[in-house]
Amino acid sequence: MTTDPPPANPAPVRRPTRLVLVGLALVLAVVAAACGGGESSKDDTPATVGPAISQGQLPTFDPGTTITVVTHDSFAVSEDVLTQFTDATNVEVRLVPSGDAVAAVNKAILTAGDPEGDVLFGIDENLLASAFAADLFVPYEARGLSTVPEQYQVDPEHRVTPIDHGDVCINYDRTWFREKDLEVPTSFEDLLDPELKGKLVVEDPSSSTPGLAFLLATVAAQGGGDDDSSSAAWLQYWQKLKDNGVKVVDGWETAYNVDFSGSAGKGDRPLVVSYASSPPVEVTDPSTPPEDAPTGVLADTCYRQTEFAGILRGAGKAEAAGAFIEFMLSLPFQEDMPEQMYVYPVNSQAVLPEAWERYTTPVEDPLALPFEEVGARREAWIQQWAGLFR
Amino acid sequence: MTTAPQPRRWWRAALAVPPVAFLLVFFVWPVAAILLKGLRPDGAWDLSALGDVLTDPVIRRVAWFTLWQAVLSTALCVVAGLPGAALFARFRFAGKRFLWAALLVPFVLPTVVVGVALLGVIGPNGVSGVDLSGTLWAVLVAHVFFNYAVVVRTVGGAWSTVDPRLEEAARTLGASPWRAFREVTWPLLRPAVAAASSIVFLFTFTSFGVVLVVGGVRQRTLEVEIYDQTARFLHLDVAAALALVQLVVVVAALAWFGRTQRRRAVVLDQRPAAEVARRPRGWRERAFVGTNLLFMAALLGVPLAVLVVRSFDAPAGWGTGNYQALDTARRGSTSFVPPVEAITNSLLFALAATVVAVVLGGCAAWAVAGSGREPSPRWARWTDTALMVPLGTSAVTVGFGMFVAFGDPPLELRSSVWLVPLAHAVVAIPFVIRLLVPALRSIDPQLREAAGVLGASPWRVWREVDLPVVSRALAAAAGFAFAVSLGEFGATVFLARPERPTLPVAIYRFLGQPGPLNFGQAMALSVVLMALTVIVIMAIDRLRPIGSAEF
Q1: Which of A174, B22, B283, B486 has the fewest Cβ atoms within 10 Å of its own Cβ atom?
Q2: pLDDT tens track for B140-164
């Protein structure tokens, strides 16, 4: 067997191109045959969906009905609670975790009109404006809203329904402050104390949901949100935070698990941007008195973060989706949420778990901004912030 | 049997068809779909974003930083990895097989876990006492931590088939050890070094997660910008423009690496690895082995030990509490993943991805490598480059692209579990090609010719000449493919697969929640993932064609 050097012949070069095309066609044909039969049900959604509950009962559907609920990755519910819904309505629920809240909503916007699921759960105020601009949701006015305080019902058109809230607050490491014999700060101004230099870790508002909420908290507290210049009041506050050694990391996981001294990661900073609901989870011994819990919350830094659910436009099963939204507002689901997702129920009749009653401080009047303003200004604020920190 | 070159080339071209078709469907199409959504928003071209991006000074700075940190990281990885490669190629020592497999552990760990491990050493309150978090140094250390295995396993594999008598002959003729290495061994290793460098360069050029975690807000790569513009702000036009910039650099770099590799391929008289490696003799060799092992302990051992220690730090005190909780703590919740199920899912996905990658990558490698005597035709070189591009493409572009492209018939794969191993395979195929091609090119064509003259069919020549000689590279390639998939690389984090959560998915669920038990369980599950990796990679490394000597 001998091999000569190849002749200078351009002809063989063309052959692979044809082969590639034939091969591609074959692959396409096989795959198309393998996954044919996909059902498509588009544009049969009514403009609005009527109330799914009649006389306090969830409606029933044909057995075998399945709805798909697109969620963020932190979604969780007890199996037996979910089973209650299926038992009452015959509707099976398929959960599709779809990244963090921002990624989940943006993927929904990318596929607007041809959604991946019937219900989207986990959209927060900061994302409402862009979701509404993309016309993601079919309005649905839930009966269950009668139990939900006005402050959470931000959309008069009911394109989205509030389900839970989990305020973003600065958490502190109680042991650290005791050992140093320092006063626990209470206000934004206290964070600028030279004694607390290099003691706060926050998340990048462009990549992290709690990071963005904390930026919004400073805008709401310090003002200057309509000021595009570098002398905006809230931005000057950040300048002072920077001068006092604030550390910015990519996300909550790093801030809380690596840098925060009050968590299992045992970092070196006793102040972290986290949630109002974080402290009860740090308590490992239930006999600990509340004043000795390992971590606590600076209530005056809390920013309201409500999570909503909506019926995705273009999904085939809007009625069953409406029933699921009613179910999410009902007591079984609402009382299950705290221990599953570390969030507060919006249903005012829901009873909190004992540990929550004991170790969380109710935030009476958290900071908040109208979602329309956040939608219009969010990117500009992040740009301004980035100008200071990058 | 005909021996004219024409039919042989035809076969080689035919071999290239399946991998190229696969690339077109699972890479080119989704990437084109998302880029077009950005650049042709309403059916008409709008390239204004491209102009804006190219003239934006911030983007230029980011692009420049991305490039030079990648070059620097690649150089550091090669410098750090070459002694390790020599160690594994030339010496036998206790625990060698274990260590060879354990090198891949950083590859499979979720980014945040790597962050916890590395920052446990060089972060706040780290055991080294130096806090590098948020600096360029942390990014470089992380890149070496990740890619050390690429250099050691790629170059070490090639080195172990180089006949040590070549260097010994040079020494006998009076060359210093350095000169013998530089003038004899180094030229023989260059193709493998170029292969490893090209992979490391692509990885570090498109580095994302680890840059965010250890680099903080200052160290931003193009990949981070693309992620922000795509997944955060949904500015698909800007994201597409950035992705094109990234693509141009990647293709240029690949073309350069490709030329380097072709020019320097040397045909070798290969030796079985067992003949090459021996126990260290004399204090110099012992010191070399010892220093190498110390370096590996510092680079890989200490950060990974941080994870192991923390996995035993349970809320109720030291012990296996976190491990026991894995199967009990969240039972009854939809977010509960039974550990055995997560392990099974991870293994099945990785197995499927490895099989696809090895088969398709193998086809491509044999097509591209040629017979050793004739230079590769141009189509083969372009195929080679094209199949490498996925490694250097933004994961968020591919992930969102798949999401857009596979939502409708004919390929309605968006919510299919099959999309996950296929997406893994897209990233794993380049490893298979890069490891196999230098090995194939180093086969002396006379071996094949001799077998043919003695009457062996082409199939038998392939089975008894090619396969045994490249089996080591093949096992290493399969190991990388497996690790890439086990570690949930890149694009797949954007693909939903609700019914089949894997180990990394379960780890992320724990890390996303506060409380010492969640953290402890994340650490425990990471240790499980580490152990699983070592076991499986050791098993893959032992796979050899039956009856062949180990090359």
Answers
A1: B283
A2: 999 999 999 999 999 998 888 888 8
To the nearest 10 degrees (0 to 180), the angle between helices B339-369 and B378-388 is 160
HSE (CB half, 13 Å, CA atoms) of A288? 18
Chain B: nearest CA to A155, how far in angstroms? 22
CA atoms within 13 A on the CB side of B131: 11
Contact (Cβ atoms closer than 8 angstroms) between residue B185 and residue B166: yes
- CB A106 to CB B13 under 8 A? no
CA nearest to A266, candidates B167, B42, B119, B194 = B119
Query: What is the complex's ipTM, to 2 decimals?
Result: 0.84
Residue at token pair 């320092």: A182
Domain boundaries, chain A: 66-165+306-359, 168-303+365-389
Tens-place pLDDT, residues A202-247: 999 988 899 999 999 999 999 999 998 888 999 999 999 999 999 9
Domain made up of A66-165+306-359: CATH architecture: 3-Layer(aba) Sandwich (3.40)
Nearest residue, CB atoms, B334 vs list A27, A77, A248: A77
Residue B272 contacts A where some CB pair is shorter than 8 Å:
no
Closest chain A residue by Cα to residue B516: A264
> Could you tell me where the beta strands, DSSP code E, fall in chain A?
66-71, 92-97, 119-124, 137-138, 161-165, 168-173, 200-203, 247-249, 271-275, 295-303, 306-312, 344-345
Is 3.40.190.10 the CATH classification of the domain at A168-303+365-389? yes
Prior bond of B504 cis (ω within 30°): no
- Top residue of A258, A288, A297 to mutate, by most chain B CBs within 10 Å, is A258
From A378, which residue of chain B is nearest by alpha-carbon distance?
A: B233
pLDDT digits (tens, 9 = 90+) for B178-187: 898 888 888 8
Min Cα distance A36 → chain B (Å) is 7
CB interface of B with A, residues 93-152, below 8 Å? 112, 115-116, 119-120, 123-125, 131, 133-134
Residue A178's CB is within 10 A of a number of other CB atoms, namely: 11
Q: Do B20 and A20 touch (CB under 8 A)?
A: yes
Q: Do the Cβ atoms of A67 and A325 come closer than 8 Å? A: no
The whole-model pTM stands at 0.86
Q: Do A114 and B408 touch (CB under 8 A)?
A: yes
What are the DSSP calls for A98-138, one per residue? -SSHHHHHHHHHHTTTS-S-SEEEEEEHHHHHHHHHTT-EE
In chain A, the residue whose alpha carbon lies closest to the alpha carbon of B20 is A20
For B57-542, the fitting CATH number among 3.40.50.1000, 1.10.3720.10, 1.20.140.10, 3.10.450.710 is: 1.10.3720.10
Would you call A278 and B371 a contact, using CB atoms and an 8 Å cutoff? no
**CATH topology of A66-165+306-359 equal to that of A168-303+365-389?**
yes
> Are B496 and A116 within 8 A, CB to CB?
yes
Contact list in B for residue A268 (CB cut-off 8 A) is 124-125, 131
Choose the mutation target among B24, B34, B232 for the interface with A, i.e. most A CBs under 10 Å. Answer: B232
Residue A318 phi/psi, 5-degree rounding, is -65, -35
Name the residue among A90, A101, B90 with its Cα closest to residue A109. A101
Assess whether pLDDT exceeds 80 at residue B135.
Answer: yes
